[in-house]
Specification:
By secondary structure, this protein is an alpha/beta fold. The protein folds into three domains: 12-121, Cobalt-precorrin-4 Transmethylase, domain 1; 124-226, Tetrapyrrole methylase, C-terminal domain (Methyltransferase, Cobalt-precorrin-4 Transmethylase, Domain 2, 2-Layer Sandwich), CATH 3.30.950; 239-277, no CATH class. Helix content is 39%, strand content 18%. The chain has helices at residues 28-36, 45-54, 69-81, 101-110, 123-131, 148-157, 174-185, 208-211, 239-248, 253-264, 268-277, and strands at 12-16, 39-42, 60-63, 86-88, 114-118, 138-143, 164-169, 189-194, 202-207, 222-226. The protein has a five-stranded parallel sheet, with helices on both faces. A five-stranded mixed sheet has the order 6-7-10-8-9. Helix 9 packs across helix 10 (253-264), helix 9 (239-248) crosses helix 11 (268-277) and helix 10 crosses helix 11. It starts with 11 loop residues before the first strand and ends with a helix. The model has no long low-confidence stretch (mean pLDDT 92).
Length: 279
């Protein structure tokens, strides 16, 4: 399927980026599109009205969020069947990232209609470019799972990744997340970006270890930018010496053996035998 976005009159779903804080962070094109479409899909109509009223945009608003996405998708497709052009916006930033927009985009594409991006503000990129960490490559993780065991499992899966990690976190969970990141990833550079583009924007550049003693401000959402792994080991090291090296770096014995197994892609029992029995 080839989409020639502007060469035909196919009904279009515009994915319109909106400000992440400062109301002026919206493009001229985004405002024009929002004034031209037949209806605007938004997560919370009350939140979106603040922005739309500011730019004198008065269109039909259709609530589209996690709790009604299935039933609303059919209504949206019916409108496009009638030839309507629609815009999708989120409460802040670019739709489709940590919201139900992704599923809708898939459905619209599946039904043969055009999906067109109207780029703009992004908390991911805003935090990344001011962080001072390696900008590329980077991996966007989004929100970590709420369940503690699942959360730790996800963090562990990124332990050896060399790219910068970008995480979204709510203010009340930041402290615990920093503790988990330090416990699993070890000490690395970390940047906490709070209230991006707003009056009280705060960028804290520190390390995971030092972050544990910070007084975390629980007002406003956070983007956490974590330095990628710089861990290396001498390929000539024996398994036992590799475990000892990690213990010397501050890891406890159990975690050190687990990390060696993962890094060398061998079983934990093999590491145990080499370290405890055959060493």
């Amino acid at each position: 399927m080839i989409q020639r976005s502007f060469q035909d009159e196919h009904p279009k779903l515009y994915i319109v980026s909106t400000p992440i804080g400062h109301l002026k962070d919206i493009t001229y094109r985004a405002v024009e599109i929002l004034k031209e479409v037949d209806a605007i899909l938004c997560e919370d109509t009350r939140t979106s009205k603040t922005l739309l009223n500011h730019y004198d945009i008065h269109k039909q608003l259709i609530s589209f969020h996690d709790h009604n996405k299935t039933e609303k998708a059919q209504e949206i497709l019916s409108l496009m069947d009638e030839g309507k052009h629609l815009a999708l916006i989120s409460d802040a930033g670019t739709p489709g990232i940590n919201d139900p927009g992704y599923e809708l985009i898939q459905e619209v594409i599946k039904h043969g209609y055009h999906v067109v991006a109207i780029p703009g503000a992004s908390a991911i990129l805003s935090a990344l470019v001011v962080s001072g960490c390696l900008i590329q490559p980077f991996t966007f993780i989004g929100f970590l799972p709420r369940k503690n065991s699942s959360k730790k499992e996800v963090i562990e899966s990124y332990h050896q990744r060399v790219e910068t990690l970008v995480i979204y976190e709510s203010p009340l969970r930041v402290k615990k997340t920093l503790e988990d990141l330090f416990a699993i990833l070890g000490d690395r550079a970390v940047v906490l970006a709070r209230e991006l583009t707003k009056m009280f924007e705060t960028i804290t550049r520190t390390t995971l270890k030092e972050s544990l003693s910070l007084d975390i401000d629980t007002r406003g959402e956070y983007v956490i930018v974590v330095e990628g792994s710089k861990e290396t080991y001498d390929l000539s090291l024996s398994i036992k010496d590799h475990v000892i090296q990690l213990i010397d770096e501050g890891y406890d014995e159990k975690d050190a053996m687990k990390m060696v197994a993962k890094k060398r892609q061998i079983t934990k029992s093999d590491v145990y035998k080499a370290y405890k029995i055959n060493g």
